[in-house]
Amino acid sequence: MSLLRNSLPSTVLKLSVRRQLAVATSTNFIRHKSTTNLKDRLAQLIPERQEEVKRIKKEHGSKVLGNVTVDMVYGGMRGIKGLVWEGSLLDPEEGIRFRGLTIPECQQQLPSASTGNEPLPEGLFWLLATGEVPTTEQANYLSSEWAARAEVPQFVKDLLDNTPKTVHPMTQFSLAVTALQSESEFAKAYQDGVPKSKYWEYTYEDSMNLIAKLPNIAGRIYQNVFKNGQMPNISRDADYGQNISTVLGFGDNKEFVELMRLYLTIHSDHEGGNVSAHATHLVGSALSDPYLSFASGLNGLAGPLHGLANQEVLRWIMRMRDELGSDEVSDETIKEYVWKTLKSGQVVPGYGHAVLRKTDPRYTCQREFALKHLPNDPLFKMVSQLYKVVPDVLTEHGKTKNPWPNVDAHSGVLLKHYGLAEQDFYTVLFGVSRSLGVLTQLIWDRALGMPIERPKSVTTANFKSLSN
Asked: Does the keyword field hold Transmembrane (predicted)?
């Protein structure tokens, strides 16, 4: 198969991918109005999917997905197909699609708030969970459910209030989610001997409760570490983006609320192989409950090669601005600074991607947001200059397969524009968003009875013997 693939013109391969994605997309245009209750809708869908998976395993179980090379094993398993992930698919040329829909299609088709145009995270969660574009009523159901479940237990509040401000916000986030595990309905039901057919229902309840509480947890961390510790209250009548904006202290800024709706939507899912998604899936495969599973994903997200990258980008841009002494410098001056960074042995943060070979669509939609709402912001102008300069420099440098910007190249500048300037907190927002993708998959993992993940490992001595 790999030889055949290498012999095909790239245009044919791209057309083939687009056709496959178009087929996937075509199933999402009909909105299913049978119920506004997501759990009821999943109860209708799960038997169908269980039968579908049985057929796939029976008819295609012996088929080969690809070859594994020694380079792949030593290269972090890059490119090895070994996971099932329903919510999203990442194509090197097309970018991310959520259940077959591109980001622009999500912006067009998913419900928005009556006061805005950006998609509601609730709509994206319904799409990831069911593969269906929800109605406004279905998205509003989730808004109400999450607001009703949002209260955090007092002992978790006390834990956060007594944690030193010097503890990194992501560490506090992971601590709080882990502490919430005592509330797990799945863990209690498992101890009581609930049948496997019911696992998904308790996973669903835990996931809904956890997602609902994340804004209050994130808000408390932000207020304790960076502000005066006073915690605003969420509204039972507001959507998720509005409520997280409120607890952060930006609820009266309509543009910031719109940014949160967009931010939470586009950062939610990015296939199953990234560290936060895979870690959540891996720990969940041991039948750890959603709290413990998601906490492990957060710990991976906190790494500088993963979610922590978005704060590193803004710091690099601000350091460049300070060293150059102005917000307004020529493209040639920017180019010289980029070369200086590369020649010092550092990378240009926010550029390149493990899979993508084009500009990240998540970068593009944030750029469009900035062009609409903050076209004259000095840092945004600098980001735009970098977009013009960096790809050519990286191409000339020759050590980067993808010279184009990724999502991290833009998000920090938008947050800073509206006053959320504390870079150490940015990954917490990323974590709130990522919960939407990894927890919908965890529900499906339990519904489909996915087994514990346990790949085979080998030693370097095994590889040496291959040549004998």
From this structure: no
Nearest to 360 by CA among 103, 108, 118: 103
In the set 91, 360, 377, 408, the catalytic residue is 408
- Gyration radius (Cα) of the chain, Å: 22
What residues contact residue 83 under an 8 Å CB cut-off, 6+ apart?
A: 272, 273, 278, 281
* From 270, 278, 281, 306, the catalytic residue: 306
Check residue 167 and report its DSSP letter. Answer: S
CA separation for the pair 382, 66 (Å, rounded): 42
What is the 8-class DSSP label of residue 404? S
d(CA 372, CA 374) in angstroms, rounded, equals 6
Per the structure block, which two tokens stand in for 347?
A: 């990378």
The yes-or-no answer on residue 353 being catalytic is yes
pLDDT in tens, 224-258: 999 999 999 999 999 999 999 999 999 999 999 99
CA dist., res. 403 & res. 34, Å (int)? 46
Q: Is 397 a catalytic residue?
A: no
Our CA dihedral for 311, 211, 52, 266, rounded to 10 degrees, sits at: -30
pLDDT in tens, 32-60: 677 899 999 999 999 999 999 999 999 99
Q: Which of 353, 360, 377, 445 is catalytic?
A: 353
CA dihedral 27, 28, 31, 34 (to 10 degrees): 60
- Count other C-beta atoms under 10 Å from residue 23's C-beta: 10
pTM exceeding the 0.85 threshold for the entire prediction: yes
Q: Does residue 200 sit in helix, strand or coil? A: helix
Within 251-407, where are the H helices? 254-266, 275-285, 290-301, 309-324, 331-343, 361-373, 378-397
Distances 187 to 201, 212, 273, 284, 381 between C-alpha atoms, Å:
12, 19, 26, 12, 50
List b or e across 377-392, with b for residues whose CB sees 16 or more CB atoms inside 10 angstroms: bebbbbbbbbbebbbe
Q: Calculate the CA dihedral of residues 417, 419, 423, 425 and round it to 10 degrees.
A: -130
